[in-house]
Design brief:
The chain is α+β, with helices and mostly antiparallel strands and 379 residues long. 42% of the residues lie in helices and 22% in strands. Bound molecules: adenosine-5'-diphosphate and the ligand C[C@@](O)(CCOP(=O)(O)OP(=O)(O)O)CC(=O)O. The site of ligand DP6 has 18 residues, from α3, α5 and α7. Residues 368-379 have a biased composition (Basic residues).
């Protein structure tokens, strides 16, 4: 109990399924990468809860009140709703779990170190998901509560929906299972409602319709190359914009979901067969589908740099697309085994794209297969 505990969780890249995966039960293929957020939980020095992150230049002290965490120093109030919002949500959610389970709440200092920012700018590798999962793991270790993979994911998801029920949680799944995954999201609005009505413990153990996680093999027939535009983009803002367009629920939206599902399941099948042409075709089709979504909604998924990133990858013999919500951040290219990686990187550098030297996250030494596919899928 209360031992220092260090845990890390990887960032991720979406291969296909962006925006569709926001709908409960709809799939995306997401890949954990070998860059991590590390969180260490230790006894605090001054306050009941202390949060230390490389995003801020000083530790922030918090106290536990009847309505959750509050800053000790009013000048830090903005941080609690900003850079610290995900960390604080984890502490709050675990606090509620402890209270509901009859366990005491434990003083803690969480210290974060992240490899998912470059010179202070987020790269778009799912830092919020990685920090949430790493914090759940570290806090679980500190409290002496052993959490299996799916429990980590569920707790991280509950913390995450208290911040924003919009995101799909694909980043949380990649951070939890540290693998290439076919991920289908649960209904986050329903989870938030249940959490408010019944608490953390009950919601953790309830069925989560829509959620499904399948591990997929990393391909050998193609290599995966992320490129960074150098422009940070806000995923939350783009999800909010999409909600306001009224597109959701339209015939067009339904067609988009079906088309995306076809592409995503085609990619999952191609990964299982390790088939280069089908993998490249899935990326090509996904880029076109995102382009169509962009034209219909005006979301601004594509940018001149992302267009250049995709063109350069095609010239190098591969296929590419924006990865994630778009508007900046990263794109992803797949190259067949006989294409030149140097050629791709040269073209990218000329176009102002930074090739990111990332690899698929190596599997953890012990990994429990997710229980979700067998027990809790709706399809
Ligand atoms: N190093 C970190 N320390 C604490 N919180 C972090 C850290 N990195 C990311 N976060 C949390 O994640 C949020 C960024 O999430 P988001 O904009 O979705 O970026 P990303 O695309 O990398 O997930 C931050 O505002 C913060 O709440
Ligand atoms: C639009 C999306 O389907 C994909 C967004 O992927 P990003 O990689 O942009 O997300 P971050 O994890 O915040 O970096 C939204 C979602 O799935 O939550």
């Amino acid at each position: 109990m209360n031992a220092p505990a260090t845990a890390r969780a990887p960032g991720k890249l979406l291969l296909v399924g962006e925006y569709a995966v926001l709908e409960p039960g709809r799939p995306a293929v997401v890949m954990a990468v070998d860059r991590y957020v590390t969180v260490t939980a230790t006894p605090p020095e001054h306050a009941e809860v202390e949060l230390v992150t490389d995003l801020l230049d000083h530790p922030v002290g918090l106290r536990r009140g009847p309505r959750g965490l509050a800053v000790c120093d009013g000048r830090d109030a903005g941080h609690l709703a900003g850079a610290l919002v995900h960390l604080a949500a984890v502490v709050d959610t675990v606090d509620r779990l402890c209270t509901e389970s009859g366990l005491g709440r434990v003083p803690v200092r969480l210290t974060v170190r992240s490899e998912l920012h470059r010179h202070g700018v987020k790269v778009g590798l799912g830092s919020s998901g990685a920090v949430t999962v790493a914090a759940v793991r570290a806090l679980g270790g500190h409290l002496g509560i052993p959490l299996a993979g799916e429990e980590q994911f569920r707790l991280a998801m509950l913390a995450s929906v208290t911040v924003d029920a919009g995101p799909s949680g694909a980043d949380l799944a990649a951070a939890t299972w540290q693998s290439l995954l076919l991920y289908r999201s649960p209904d986050r609005d329903a989870l938030l409602g249940r959490l408010r009505a019944h608490g953390v413990l009950e919601t953790l153990g309830a069925p989560w319709p829509g959620l499904s996680v399948r591990l997929l093999p990393v391909p050998a027939a193609v290599s995966v190359h992320p490129g960074w535009t150098g422009q940070a983009a806000s995923t939350g803002a783009r999800i909010g914009l999409l909600r306001r367009t009224g597109w959701r629920g339209s015939d067009d939206h339904r067609r988009f979901l079906l088309h995306s599902e076809r592409i995503t399941t085609a990619m999952a099948g191609a990964l299982l067969r390790d088939e280069a042409p089908a993998l490249l075709a899935a990326v090509h089709d996904a880029r076109r589908l995102l382009g169509e979504l962009d034209r219909r909604t005006g979301l601004g998924i594509s940018t001149p740099l992302l267009t250049a990133l995709c063109r350069a990858a095609q010239e190098a013999g591969g296929e590419a697309k924006p990865s994630g919500a778009g508007g900046g951040d990263c794109g992803i290219a797949l190259l067949p085994a006989d294409a030149s990686v140097d050629g791709l990187h040269r073209r990218w550098t000329e176009a102002g794209i930074v090739p990111l030297p990332l690899r698929p996250c190596p599997p953890p030494t012990t990994r429990r297969a997710p229980r979700t596919p067998a027990r809790r899928t709706i399809r």
